[in-house]
Each structure stands twice: as C-alpha cells, then as structure tokens.
Amino acid sequence: MSITLTDQDKSTLRTAAYGAISLMSAADAAGRPHKVATHGSIALSSATGAIGHVLAAKTKDINLDGKSVAELADHVLPALTAAMTLLKQQAPAEAGNFRNTVLVAVEAAARTQGSPSPTLADMTRKITEALDAA
Fold it and tell me: 94's torsion region: left (phi>0), alpha (psi -120 to 50) or beta?
C-alpha cells in the first residue's frame, strides 16, 4: 500500500513516536533514562511498512522542546493523537502499525529494569490514551 505524506506529516509522526520514548526517558530520570531511551529507540528503528520508512529517515525535524516532563508531554501527547488522526484518515492499516510500533517501543523502554516502575506505568497509560484519543 502506498501512502502519500507531506514533510509536515512525517515530522508529526517522528515527533510523536520519538517523543513518546523521550517522555518515558524523562519519567525515569531517577532510574536509567539512557537505557529507557536506547531500548525504545531500538524498537522504533525496527518498525516496518510505511511507518518504518518514516521513522528510519535521518532528519532533524523532530521537535522535542521542553524543560520539564510536563512541557514535553504538552507537545508529545497531542502529537500522538494528531498522528493517529492523520493515519486513520489516509491509511487505516498504517494507523494500526503506528500504534503498535509506538506501544512496543514504550513497552521495551518500560521493561529495561524488569517490571515497569509506577512512574513508567503511568506514562505508558498516558501515551496509550493519547494514541486512542483519535
């Protein structure tokens, strides 16, 4: 299946996906945020289909500004919802692929220390809710 995405669409998808991992890493600031980020990023780079191609692109268009977890969440959670809305309109199968890819990456990030901490479990819930809000 071919899907036509604008550069802005692709930027939104990358910001949403990598932003979810950044949120997980920021939520684990007292633990091992570098491991959280590494495991989550590896999972995103393993994506397939059109989403895999978008996430694998080497660009500098990922916007993850924020000086706190709250500021980052204010940007990333709406981007997750926007990404799902966009994909549901243009390619419903890719919407499922994107959702699954992000959730697998979030789970990989959360399990770097065995079972997820309460903070990571709560951030996972918020990310899932943002994905499902579309």
Answer: alpha
Cα separations (Å) of 17 from 34, 97, 98, 114? 17, 12, 8, 22
Residue found by looking up tokens 């669409």 in the block = 9
Q: What is the mean pLDDT of each run of 10 residues along the chain (134 residues)?
A: 84 96 87 87 94 91 86 96 96 93 94 81 96 94
Q: How many CA atoms lie within 13 A of 57 on its CB side?
A: 18
Backbone Cα Rg of the chain = 14
Domain borders along the chain are 7-132
Angle at 131 between CA 133 and CA 2, to 5 degrees: 110
Residues 6 or more apart from 117 whose CB is under 8 A from it?
Answer: 28, 31
Measured distance CA(12)–CA(29) in Å, rounded: 25
